[in-house]
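Working notes for the structural subgroup meeting. M.R. asked for a predicted model of this chain before we commit to crystallization trials. I am recording the input and output together here so anyone reviewing the notebook later can reproduce the run.

Input as submitted:
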Amino acid sequence: MHTYSMYIGGEFRDKKEKILIENPATQEVFAQIPQADESDLVFCIEKAKSAQKTWQKTSFKERKQLLQGISKVILENLKNLAELETKEIGKPIKETLFVDIPLAAQCFEYYASLIENVSFPSFFNKDAFDMVEYVPFGVVGMFLPYNVPLMLFGFNAAAALAAGNAIIVKPSELGSLSLLELAKYIDELDFPEGLINIITGEGPIIGKALAASDIDMFSFTGASETFKKIFESIKRPKKVISELSGVNLAIVFSDADLEESSENIMASAFMKQGQMCINTSVCLIEEGIYKQFLELLSKKMEKIKVGDPSSALTGMGPLRSKKHLEEVVNKVEEFKEKRAKIIKGGKALETKGYFFEPTIIEIPEMIYAECFNPILLVKKFNQEEIETIIAQNPTGLVLQIWSKDLKKAKALAENAQYGTVWINTFAQMDARTPFGGFKESGFGRTLGKWGLFEYLQPKHIGISFGKTQVSGWFG
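Returned structure, recorded in C-alpha coordinate form:
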Protein backbone atom coordinates (compact mmCIF):
# COMPACT_ATOMS: atom_id res chain seq x y z
CA MET A 1 0.00 0.00 0.00
CA HIS A 2 1.34 3.41 -0.97
CA THR A 3 1.35 6.18 1.64
CA TYR A 4 0.95 9.75 0.37
CA SER A 5 1.95 12.83 2.36
CA MET A 6 0.14 16.14 2.29
CA TYR A 7 2.04 19.20 1.07
CA ILE A 8 1.86 22.18 3.41
CA GLY A 9 4.20 25.05 4.17
CA GLY A 10 6.73 23.85 1.61
CA GLU A 11 7.14 20.42 3.20
CA PHE A 12 5.64 16.96 2.90
CA ARG A 13 3.94 16.01 6.14
CA ASP A 14 2.52 12.69 7.27
CA LYS A 15 0.12 11.94 10.15
CA LYS A 16 -0.52 8.92 12.31
CA GLU A 17 -4.24 9.01 11.50
CA LYS A 18 -4.88 7.89 7.92
CA ILE A 19 -7.71 7.71 5.40
CA LEU A 20 -7.72 4.54 3.30
CA ILE A 21 -8.15 4.88 -0.47
CA GLU A 22 -10.11 2.20 -2.32
CA ASN A 23 -10.08 1.39 -6.02
CA PRO A 24 -13.83 1.47 -6.86
CA ALA A 25 -13.40 -0.95 -9.77
CA THR A 26 -11.77 -3.72 -7.71
CA GLN A 27 -12.60 -2.72 -4.11
CA GLU A 28 -8.88 -3.03 -3.33
CA VAL A 29 -7.45 -0.63 -0.72
CA PHE A 30 -4.25 0.51 -2.42
CA ALA A 31 -3.24 3.80 -0.78
CA GLN A 32 -3.62 5.98 2.28
CA ILE A 33 -3.54 9.74 2.89
CA PRO A 34 -3.10 11.78 6.08
CA GLN A 35 -5.98 13.11 8.14
CA ALA A 36 -4.87 16.65 8.93
CA ASP A 37 -5.74 18.29 12.22
CA GLU A 38 -6.08 21.90 13.33
CA SER A 39 -2.40 22.26 14.17
CA ASP A 40 -1.54 21.39 10.57
CA LEU A 41 -3.96 24.02 9.35
CA VAL A 42 -2.53 26.71 11.67
CA PHE A 43 0.97 25.95 10.38
CA CYS A 44 -0.27 25.92 6.79
CA ILE A 45 -2.03 29.30 7.03
CA GLU A 46 0.92 30.93 8.76
CA LYS A 47 3.30 29.82 5.99
CA ALA A 48 0.78 30.76 3.28
CA LYS A 49 0.44 34.30 4.64
CA SER A 50 4.19 34.77 4.66
CA ALA A 51 4.58 33.36 1.15
CA GLN A 52 1.76 35.50 -0.19
CA LYS A 53 3.39 38.73 0.97
CA THR A 54 6.46 37.81 -1.06
CA TRP A 55 4.48 36.53 -4.03
CA GLN A 56 2.35 39.67 -4.27
CA LYS A 57 5.50 41.70 -4.86
CA THR A 58 6.79 39.46 -7.65
CA SER A 59 6.59 40.61 -11.24
CA PHE A 60 4.12 39.22 -13.74
CA LYS A 61 7.14 37.71 -15.50
CA GLU A 62 8.01 35.63 -12.41
CA ARG A 63 4.41 34.56 -11.95
CA LYS A 64 4.26 33.57 -15.59
CA GLN A 65 7.33 31.37 -15.18
CA LEU A 66 5.75 29.47 -12.29
CA LEU A 67 2.46 28.95 -14.12
CA GLN A 68 4.26 27.70 -17.22
CA GLY A 69 6.37 25.45 -15.01
CA ILE A 70 3.27 23.86 -13.49
CA SER A 71 1.75 23.36 -16.94
CA LYS A 72 4.98 21.74 -18.10
CA VAL A 73 5.25 19.25 -15.22
CA ILE A 74 1.59 18.28 -15.63
CA LEU A 75 2.16 17.42 -19.28
CA GLU A 76 5.49 15.70 -18.59
CA ASN A 77 3.76 13.44 -16.06
CA LEU A 78 0.45 13.19 -17.91
CA LYS A 79 0.31 9.40 -18.13
CA ASN A 80 1.11 8.86 -14.46
CA LEU A 81 -1.39 11.49 -13.26
CA ALA A 82 -4.12 10.20 -15.58
CA GLU A 83 -3.68 6.59 -14.50
CA LEU A 84 -3.75 7.61 -10.84
CA GLU A 85 -7.02 9.54 -11.21
CA THR A 86 -8.55 6.62 -13.07
CA LYS A 87 -7.47 4.14 -10.41
CA GLU A 88 -8.72 6.27 -7.51
CA ILE A 89 -11.94 7.65 -9.00
CA GLY A 90 -12.99 5.09 -11.61
CA LYS A 91 -13.14 7.37 -14.66
CA PRO A 92 -12.23 5.71 -17.97
CA ILE A 93 -8.58 6.30 -18.85
CA LYS A 94 -9.48 7.99 -22.15
CA GLU A 95 -11.21 10.76 -20.17
CA THR A 96 -8.37 11.43 -17.74
CA LEU A 97 -5.65 11.05 -20.38
CA PHE A 98 -7.15 13.09 -23.20
CA VAL A 99 -9.47 15.56 -21.44
CA ASP A 100 -9.19 16.15 -17.70
CA ILE A 101 -5.44 16.35 -17.08
CA PRO A 102 -4.54 18.17 -20.33
CA LEU A 103 -7.21 20.80 -19.60
CA ALA A 104 -5.57 21.50 -16.23
CA ALA A 105 -2.26 22.15 -18.00
CA GLN A 106 -4.01 24.35 -20.56
CA CYS A 107 -5.40 26.56 -17.78
CA PHE A 108 -1.95 27.25 -16.32
CA GLU A 109 -0.58 28.07 -19.76
CA TYR A 110 -3.56 30.33 -20.51
CA TYR A 111 -3.27 32.40 -17.32
CA ALA A 112 0.49 32.64 -17.82
CA SER A 113 -0.19 34.45 -21.10
CA LEU A 114 -3.19 36.41 -19.83
CA ILE A 115 -1.42 38.26 -17.01
CA GLU A 116 0.97 39.80 -19.52
CA ASN A 117 -1.97 41.69 -20.98
CA VAL A 118 -3.60 42.97 -17.79
CA SER A 119 -4.02 46.74 -18.05
CA PHE A 120 -4.44 49.23 -15.23
CA PRO A 121 -6.99 51.94 -16.08
CA SER A 122 -6.19 55.59 -15.39
CA PHE A 123 -8.16 58.81 -15.81
CA PHE A 124 -6.99 62.41 -16.09
CA ASN A 125 -8.67 65.77 -15.73
CA LYS A 126 -7.37 69.29 -15.20
CA ASP A 127 -6.21 69.00 -11.57
CA ALA A 128 -6.49 65.32 -10.75
CA PHE A 129 -5.29 61.87 -11.67
CA ASP A 130 -7.12 58.62 -10.88
CA MET A 131 -5.75 55.14 -11.29
CA VAL A 132 -7.04 51.65 -10.63
CA GLU A 133 -4.79 48.91 -9.36
CA TYR A 134 -5.65 45.23 -8.92
CA VAL A 135 -4.53 43.56 -5.71
CA PRO A 136 -4.89 39.93 -4.60
CA PHE A 137 -7.12 38.92 -1.70
CA GLY A 138 -4.32 37.12 0.15
CA VAL A 139 -4.73 33.49 1.17
CA VAL A 140 -7.39 31.57 -0.76
CA GLY A 141 -8.90 28.27 0.33
CA MET A 142 -10.04 25.92 -2.43
CA PHE A 143 -12.51 23.10 -1.87
CA LEU A 144 -12.37 20.59 -4.73
CA PRO A 145 -14.73 17.67 -5.49
CA TYR A 146 -13.67 14.10 -6.18
CA ASN A 147 -14.71 13.81 -9.82
CA VAL A 148 -12.16 16.04 -11.62
CA PRO A 149 -9.72 17.21 -8.93
CA LEU A 150 -6.73 18.06 -11.10
CA MET A 151 -8.83 19.75 -13.79
CA LEU A 152 -10.57 21.97 -11.26
CA PHE A 153 -7.23 22.69 -9.62
CA GLY A 154 -6.29 24.14 -13.00
CA PHE A 155 -9.53 26.11 -13.27
CA ASN A 156 -9.03 27.80 -9.89
CA ALA A 157 -5.39 27.65 -8.80
CA ALA A 158 -3.98 29.01 -12.06
CA ALA A 159 -6.08 32.17 -11.81
CA ALA A 160 -5.52 32.63 -8.08
CA LEU A 161 -1.74 32.30 -8.37
CA ALA A 162 -1.63 34.56 -11.42
CA ALA A 163 -3.48 37.18 -9.38
CA GLY A 164 -0.86 37.05 -6.61
CA ASN A 165 -2.64 34.93 -3.99
CA ALA A 166 -1.37 31.99 -1.95
CA ILE A 167 -3.57 28.89 -2.06
CA ILE A 168 -4.62 26.17 0.36
CA VAL A 169 -6.27 23.32 -1.52
CA LYS A 170 -8.59 20.97 0.34
CA PRO A 171 -9.43 18.12 -2.06
CA SER A 172 -12.15 15.56 -1.41
CA GLU A 173 -10.90 12.57 0.56
CA LEU A 174 -12.25 10.54 -2.39
CA GLY A 175 -10.11 12.39 -4.94
CA SER A 176 -6.76 13.50 -3.50
CA LEU A 177 -4.06 11.32 -5.04
CA SER A 178 -3.38 13.10 -8.34
CA LEU A 179 -2.95 16.40 -6.49
CA LEU A 180 -0.60 14.87 -3.90
CA GLU A 181 1.38 13.28 -6.72
CA LEU A 182 1.52 16.60 -8.58
CA ALA A 183 2.86 18.26 -5.43
CA LYS A 184 6.04 16.15 -5.75
CA TYR A 185 6.70 17.69 -9.17
CA ILE A 186 5.66 21.22 -8.22
CA ASP A 187 8.00 21.16 -5.22
CA GLU A 188 10.95 21.15 -7.64
CA LEU A 189 9.89 24.55 -9.02
CA ASP A 190 11.01 27.92 -7.69
CA PHE A 191 8.37 29.69 -5.56
CA PRO A 192 8.01 30.85 -1.93
CA GLU A 193 7.52 28.04 0.61
CA GLY A 194 3.86 27.86 1.55
CA LEU A 195 2.54 29.50 -1.60
CA ILE A 196 0.89 26.26 -2.77
CA ASN A 197 -0.55 23.92 -0.13
CA ILE A 198 -2.55 20.70 -0.38
CA ILE A 199 -4.07 19.67 2.93
CA THR A 200 -5.99 16.39 3.17
CA GLY A 201 -8.70 15.02 5.40
CA GLU A 202 -12.41 14.67 5.89
CA GLY A 203 -14.66 17.65 5.23
CA PRO A 204 -16.33 17.78 8.67
CA ILE A 205 -12.89 17.96 10.27
CA ILE A 206 -10.43 19.94 8.17
CA GLY A 207 -12.88 21.38 5.64
CA LYS A 208 -14.97 23.16 8.26
CA ALA A 209 -11.84 24.33 10.05
CA LEU A 210 -10.48 25.86 6.83
CA ALA A 211 -13.72 27.74 6.18
CA ALA A 212 -13.79 28.99 9.78
CA SER A 213 -10.16 30.15 9.68
CA ASP A 214 -8.88 33.63 8.92
CA ILE A 215 -8.16 32.99 5.25
CA ASP A 216 -9.23 35.87 3.01
CA MET A 217 -11.36 34.09 0.42
CA PHE A 218 -12.44 30.64 -0.62
CA SER A 219 -13.80 28.89 -3.68
CA PHE A 220 -16.00 25.83 -3.42
CA THR A 221 -16.97 23.30 -6.08
CA GLY A 222 -19.36 20.55 -5.07
CA ALA A 223 -22.81 19.66 -3.79
CA SER A 224 -25.09 22.41 -2.50
CA GLU A 225 -25.77 20.56 0.75
CA THR A 226 -22.05 20.29 1.49
CA PHE A 227 -21.58 23.97 0.69
CA LYS A 228 -24.26 24.95 3.20
CA LYS A 229 -22.43 23.07 5.95
CA ILE A 230 -19.12 24.68 5.00
CA PHE A 231 -20.69 28.15 4.72
CA GLU A 232 -22.16 27.89 8.22
CA SER A 233 -18.61 27.60 9.57
CA ILE A 234 -17.55 31.06 8.37
CA LYS A 235 -16.79 33.32 11.34
CA ARG A 236 -15.87 36.58 9.60
CA PRO A 237 -16.74 38.17 6.26
CA LYS A 238 -14.75 36.89 3.29
CA LYS A 239 -15.30 36.55 -0.42
CA VAL A 240 -16.81 33.24 -1.53
CA ILE A 241 -17.23 31.91 -5.06
CA SER A 242 -19.03 28.65 -5.65
CA GLU A 243 -20.06 26.21 -8.35
CA LEU A 244 -22.85 24.06 -6.92
CA SER A 245 -25.42 21.47 -7.94
CA GLY A 246 -27.23 21.87 -11.24
CA VAL A 247 -30.29 20.24 -12.78
CA ASN A 248 -28.98 20.45 -16.33
CA LEU A 249 -31.54 20.21 -19.10
CA ALA A 250 -31.16 19.05 -22.71
CA ILE A 251 -33.96 20.02 -25.11
CA VAL A 252 -34.45 18.15 -28.38
CA PHE A 253 -36.81 19.78 -30.86
CA SER A 254 -38.43 17.85 -33.67
CA ASP A 255 -36.25 19.62 -36.24
CA ALA A 256 -33.00 18.60 -34.51
CA ASP A 257 -30.31 16.44 -36.07
CA LEU A 258 -31.34 13.27 -34.21
CA GLU A 259 -28.12 11.41 -34.90
CA GLU A 260 -25.86 14.17 -33.58
CA SER A 261 -28.12 15.14 -30.66
CA SER A 262 -28.46 11.54 -29.46
CA GLU A 263 -24.67 11.06 -29.54
CA ASN A 264 -24.09 14.23 -27.52
CA ILE A 265 -26.86 13.63 -25.00
CA MET A 266 -25.60 10.10 -24.44
CA ALA A 267 -22.14 11.53 -23.74
CA SER A 268 -23.55 14.24 -21.48
CA ALA A 269 -25.45 11.67 -19.42
CA PHE A 270 -22.92 8.85 -19.12
CA MET A 271 -19.37 10.23 -19.34
CA LYS A 272 -17.69 9.83 -15.95
CA GLN A 273 -20.69 7.67 -15.00
CA GLY A 274 -22.70 10.90 -14.88
CA GLN A 275 -20.49 12.16 -12.04
CA MET A 276 -19.79 15.59 -13.53
CA CYS A 277 -21.27 19.02 -12.99
CA ILE A 278 -22.18 19.46 -16.67
CA ASN A 279 -24.00 16.14 -17.01
CA THR A 280 -27.58 16.12 -18.30
CA SER A 281 -30.15 15.38 -15.61
CA VAL A 282 -33.32 15.67 -17.72
CA CYS A 283 -33.69 15.30 -21.47
CA LEU A 284 -36.84 16.98 -22.82
CA ILE A 285 -37.95 15.58 -26.18
CA GLU A 286 -40.59 17.17 -28.39
CA GLU A 287 -43.76 15.08 -28.68
CA GLY A 288 -43.55 14.35 -32.39
CA ILE A 289 -40.17 12.61 -32.18
CA TYR A 290 -40.35 11.26 -28.64
CA LYS A 291 -40.68 7.56 -29.42
CA GLN A 292 -38.25 7.70 -32.35
CA PHE A 293 -35.60 9.52 -30.35
CA LEU A 294 -35.85 7.18 -27.35
CA GLU A 295 -35.46 4.16 -29.61
CA LEU A 296 -32.38 5.71 -31.23
CA LEU A 297 -30.85 6.67 -27.89
CA SER A 298 -31.53 3.25 -26.36
CA LYS A 299 -29.92 1.52 -29.33
CA LYS A 300 -26.83 3.71 -29.13
CA MET A 301 -26.45 3.00 -25.41
CA GLU A 302 -25.84 -0.66 -26.21
CA LYS A 303 -22.36 0.26 -27.43
CA ILE A 304 -21.35 1.70 -24.04
CA LYS A 305 -18.85 -0.76 -22.59
CA VAL A 306 -19.05 -0.84 -18.78
CA GLY A 307 -16.03 -2.28 -17.04
CA ASP A 308 -12.34 -1.84 -16.21
CA PRO A 309 -11.67 1.93 -16.40
CA SER A 310 -8.00 1.36 -17.18
CA SER A 311 -8.96 -0.19 -20.54
CA ALA A 312 -8.98 2.12 -23.56
CA LEU A 313 -12.17 0.37 -24.75
CA THR A 314 -14.19 1.17 -21.61
CA GLY A 315 -16.87 3.86 -21.85
CA MET A 316 -18.11 3.73 -18.26
CA GLY A 317 -16.31 2.75 -15.09
CA PRO A 318 -17.63 2.31 -11.55
CA LEU A 319 -19.24 4.85 -9.27
CA ARG A 320 -16.79 6.30 -6.78
CA SER A 321 -17.91 4.44 -3.64
CA LYS A 322 -20.18 1.79 -2.23
CA LYS A 323 -22.21 4.55 -0.56
CA HIS A 324 -22.77 6.26 -3.91
CA LEU A 325 -23.85 3.01 -5.52
CA GLU A 326 -26.35 2.38 -2.74
CA GLU A 327 -27.72 5.91 -3.14
CA VAL A 328 -28.26 5.34 -6.87
CA VAL A 329 -30.09 2.05 -6.25
CA ASN A 330 -32.33 3.82 -3.72
CA LYS A 331 -32.89 6.72 -6.14
CA VAL A 332 -34.22 4.34 -8.79
CA GLU A 333 -36.74 2.98 -6.28
CA GLU A 334 -37.81 6.54 -5.42
CA PHE A 335 -38.45 7.29 -9.08
CA LYS A 336 -40.55 4.13 -9.37
CA GLU A 337 -42.66 5.29 -6.44
CA LYS A 338 -43.33 8.51 -8.37
CA ARG A 339 -44.76 6.49 -11.29
CA ALA A 340 -41.58 6.78 -13.35
CA LYS A 341 -40.90 4.07 -15.93
CA ILE A 342 -37.52 2.43 -16.51
CA ILE A 343 -36.83 2.46 -20.25
CA LYS A 344 -33.36 0.94 -20.09
CA GLY A 345 -30.97 -0.28 -17.38
CA GLY A 346 -31.82 0.49 -13.78
CA LYS A 347 -29.69 -2.07 -11.93
CA ALA A 348 -26.30 -2.45 -10.27
CA LEU A 349 -24.05 -4.97 -11.99
CA GLU A 350 -23.53 -8.23 -10.13
CA THR A 351 -19.77 -8.04 -10.12
CA LYS A 352 -16.92 -6.82 -7.97
CA GLY A 353 -16.73 -3.04 -7.94
CA TYR A 354 -19.38 -0.32 -7.76
CA PHE A 355 -20.82 -0.57 -11.25
CA PHE A 356 -24.28 0.56 -12.33
CA GLU A 357 -25.90 0.20 -15.74
CA PRO A 358 -26.41 3.27 -17.93
CA THR A 359 -30.07 4.00 -17.31
CA ILE A 360 -32.98 5.89 -18.90
CA ILE A 361 -36.06 6.64 -16.78
CA GLU A 362 -39.21 8.22 -18.17
CA ILE A 363 -40.88 10.70 -15.79
CA PRO A 364 -44.58 11.57 -16.15
CA GLU A 365 -44.20 15.00 -14.52
CA MET A 366 -41.28 17.40 -14.50
CA ILE A 367 -38.81 16.70 -11.70
CA TYR A 368 -35.95 19.09 -11.07
CA ALA A 369 -33.55 16.50 -9.67
CA GLU A 370 -29.79 16.51 -10.16
CA CYS A 371 -28.65 13.06 -11.28
CA PHE A 372 -24.97 12.88 -10.38
CA ASN A 373 -24.96 9.29 -11.60
CA PRO A 374 -25.58 7.29 -14.81
CA ILE A 375 -29.33 7.99 -14.87
CA LEU A 376 -30.92 10.09 -17.60
CA LEU A 377 -34.47 11.24 -16.94
CA VAL A 378 -36.57 11.81 -20.07
CA LYS A 379 -39.88 13.56 -20.65
CA LYS A 380 -41.86 14.66 -23.69
CA PHE A 381 -42.82 18.31 -24.15
CA ASN A 382 -44.76 20.59 -26.47
CA GLN A 383 -43.71 24.00 -27.80
CA GLU A 384 -46.09 25.93 -25.55
CA GLU A 385 -44.60 24.70 -22.25
CA ILE A 386 -40.88 24.61 -22.92
CA GLU A 387 -40.06 28.18 -21.87
CA THR A 388 -41.87 27.66 -18.56
CA ILE A 389 -40.00 24.39 -17.91
CA ILE A 390 -36.68 26.14 -18.54
CA ALA A 391 -37.56 29.13 -16.35
CA GLN A 392 -38.85 27.09 -13.38
CA ASN A 393 -35.55 25.29 -12.90
CA PRO A 394 -34.28 26.44 -9.48
CA THR A 395 -30.70 25.95 -10.68
CA GLY A 396 -29.01 27.38 -13.75
CA LEU A 397 -25.72 25.77 -14.70
CA VAL A 398 -25.94 24.15 -18.16
CA LEU A 399 -28.64 24.03 -20.84
CA GLN A 400 -28.42 22.18 -24.16
CA ILE A 401 -30.69 23.15 -27.07
CA TRP A 402 -30.90 20.95 -30.17
CA SER A 403 -32.63 22.49 -33.19
CA LYS A 404 -31.81 23.46 -36.77
CA ASP A 405 -33.79 26.67 -36.24
CA LEU A 406 -30.96 28.80 -34.87
CA LYS A 407 -33.14 31.88 -34.49
CA LYS A 408 -35.48 29.96 -32.17
CA ALA A 409 -32.59 28.36 -30.30
CA LYS A 410 -30.77 31.65 -29.80
CA ALA A 411 -33.94 33.34 -28.50
CA LEU A 412 -34.34 30.56 -25.92
CA ALA A 413 -30.68 30.83 -24.99
CA GLU A 414 -30.86 34.59 -24.44
CA ASN A 415 -33.87 34.31 -22.15
CA ALA A 416 -32.54 31.35 -20.14
CA GLN A 417 -31.01 32.04 -16.72
CA TYR A 418 -28.14 29.57 -17.13
CA GLY A 419 -24.41 30.18 -16.93
CA THR A 420 -23.74 28.11 -20.06
CA VAL A 421 -26.05 27.41 -22.99
CA TRP A 422 -24.88 25.03 -25.69
CA ILE A 423 -26.73 25.07 -29.02
CA ASN A 424 -26.21 21.91 -31.07
CA THR A 425 -23.13 21.00 -29.05
CA PHE A 426 -21.95 19.66 -25.68
CA ALA A 427 -18.82 20.26 -23.58
CA GLN A 428 -17.70 23.13 -25.79
CA MET A 429 -15.37 24.50 -23.12
CA ASP A 430 -12.20 26.53 -23.40
CA ALA A 431 -9.82 28.16 -20.94
CA ARG A 432 -10.85 31.51 -22.48
CA THR A 433 -14.61 31.23 -21.84
CA PRO A 434 -16.31 31.73 -18.43
CA PHE A 435 -17.90 28.89 -16.52
CA GLY A 436 -20.29 29.08 -13.57
CA GLY A 437 -23.92 29.02 -12.57
CA PHE A 438 -26.97 31.22 -12.10
CA LYS A 439 -29.51 30.98 -9.25
CA GLU A 440 -28.91 28.03 -6.90
CA SER A 441 -26.00 26.80 -9.00
CA GLY A 442 -23.59 29.22 -7.40
CA PHE A 443 -21.83 32.57 -7.59
CA GLY A 444 -18.80 33.71 -9.53
CA ARG A 445 -16.93 32.35 -12.52
CA THR A 446 -13.89 30.30 -13.37
CA LEU A 447 -11.92 30.44 -16.63
CA GLY A 448 -11.29 33.32 -18.99
CA LYS A 449 -10.43 36.82 -17.84
CA TRP A 450 -13.51 36.61 -15.61
CA GLY A 451 -11.87 33.82 -13.62
CA LEU A 452 -8.76 35.95 -13.05
CA PHE A 453 -10.70 38.95 -11.78
CA GLU A 454 -12.58 36.80 -9.26
CA TYR A 455 -9.26 36.55 -7.42
CA LEU A 456 -8.40 40.26 -7.63
CA GLN A 457 -9.71 43.35 -5.85
CA PRO A 458 -9.73 46.70 -7.67
CA LYS A 459 -8.22 49.58 -5.70
CA HIS A 460 -8.80 53.23 -6.65
CA ILE A 461 -6.00 55.72 -6.01
CA GLY A 462 -6.88 59.38 -6.59
CA ILE A 463 -4.26 62.16 -6.67
CA SER A 464 -5.01 65.89 -6.73
CA PHE A 465 -2.61 68.58 -8.06
CA GLY A 466 -4.56 71.58 -6.89
CA LYS A 467 -7.54 72.59 -4.84
CA THR A 468 -10.06 69.78 -4.41
CA GLN A 469 -13.80 69.92 -4.96
CA VAL A 470 -14.46 70.26 -1.21
CA SER A 471 -11.96 73.05 -0.53
CA GLY A 472 -13.80 75.95 1.01
CA TRP A 473 -16.97 73.88 1.45
CA PHE A 474 -17.58 75.41 4.89
CA GLY A 475 -16.42 78.89 3.97
